[in-house]
Amino acid sequence: MASAFLLTVGCTNKFEEINTNPNNPDRIEQPKLLLSGVIRQLGNLGDVKYYGSVLGDYLVDQYVSMFNDVFNSTLTGELYYDGRDVQDMINIAEQYKQPHIEAMGIIIKSFMFQQMTDTYGDFPYSEAFQGKTGQIFSPKYDSQEDIYNDLILQLGSANELLMQTSAEEIGVYDCLYNGDLLKWRKFANSLKLRLLMRMSGKKDVSKSISDMVSNPDKYPLMTSNNDIAAITYLDDESSHWCPPYNAKLEKFNGTEFMSVIIEGHLKALNDPRIKVYFSPTIKGVEQGKYVYAGVPNCVRDADAANFNGGDSYNSRKGYIYAPRLLDAVYASPTAAQSILLNYSEVMFNLAEAREKGLISTGDAVTYYKNGIKASFEYWASRIPDKFKEMKSMATPPTEALEAADVIPNASYYEQANVAYTGTQAQKLEKIGVQKWISLYMCGIEGWSEWRRTGYPTDISITPPRSLPSSSNLAAWPRRVPYPQNEQVYNTEQYNAAVTRQGADNPLTRMWWDTK
Question: What is the Cα–Cα distance from 7 to 99, expressed in whole angstroms?
Answer without folding.
Answer: 46
